[in-house]
Amino acid sequence: MERLQRNISLGIFALIAVALLLRWAAQFQINAELQQARREAAVQDSIAHISDSLRRNQRIVAKGKVKKGKELVFHEKNDGSRHRILLTGDSMGDGLFLAWRKLRKQGNFDIRYQPWYGSTTDSWAKTDKLENMIKSYRPTLVIFSLGANQINDHKIAAKEDHIREIVRQMSDAEFIWIGPPNWKEDTGINNLIIKYVGRERFFDSRQLTFERRKDGAHPTEKSAAIWADSISQWIDRNPHITFSFRGNR
């Protein structure tokens, strides 16, 4: 009788454990779907934001349709006499592009913006997209903004090879890497990038305070303009970068 009661108790515990496991799995799936939905909403919001901003001035338009990875290209023709900036990475470059696009009218440089919305270090390391961009556009300076989609990444150590590959694809191009405008403390992505890029080529955006768009992550256009100005001044003071915004106005 005692053994029967013990078996029944064990069976009940097993059923409870299974129920809890199923409940946890269901909640995990719900959370994953919500996170994916938020990311997709942020991508669409970012596309709409920059498209609306560009429609105010029709001199720059998107070339072609949105490609796989929700990639867009915004640029102007260059007659070869002007310096060329290639701005690429994730959607955090939207506001930076709008700010520098206004500045370029005063200076001797053009800017090409080719974002890969939703991208991560994994995305870029597993393709030759960056390498091909550089070969095609032959920029004076590459400004690479990446890391925002990995603020919560808990497998940071696994990204070391990815960052090394991205740096390799830069080849001999002069470049800087713009760190994400953290809206909360990250799990290590900024420090890992610094480890392989070096502080002389990494703009640490954590030092700034941002006003955010409705998604809570992307800086507003006004705040991004201040961000762009801070980066421009940092570039102008940086002895490791030959390009100068001040010298090209």
Provide an overview of this structure.
47% of the residues lie in helices and 10% in strands. It starts with a helix and ends in a 12-residue tail after the last helix. Strand 1, helix 2 and strand 2 form a beta-alpha-beta unit. The relative contact order is 0.12. The chain is α/β, with parallel strands linked by helices. The protein has a 5-stranded parallel beta sheet with strand order 2-1-3-4-5, with helices on both faces. It is elongated, with a radius of gyration of 23 Å. About 7% of the residues have low confidence.
Tally of separate helices: 7
Radius of gyration: 23 Å
Principal-axis shape equals: elongated
| Distance separating the two termini | 92 Å
Task: Name the helicity range.
Answer: 40-55%
N-to-C series of helices and strands: HEHEHHEHEHEH
Averaged pLDDT, please?
81
β-strand amount: 5-15%
Order of strands in the sheet with most strands: 2-1-3-4-5
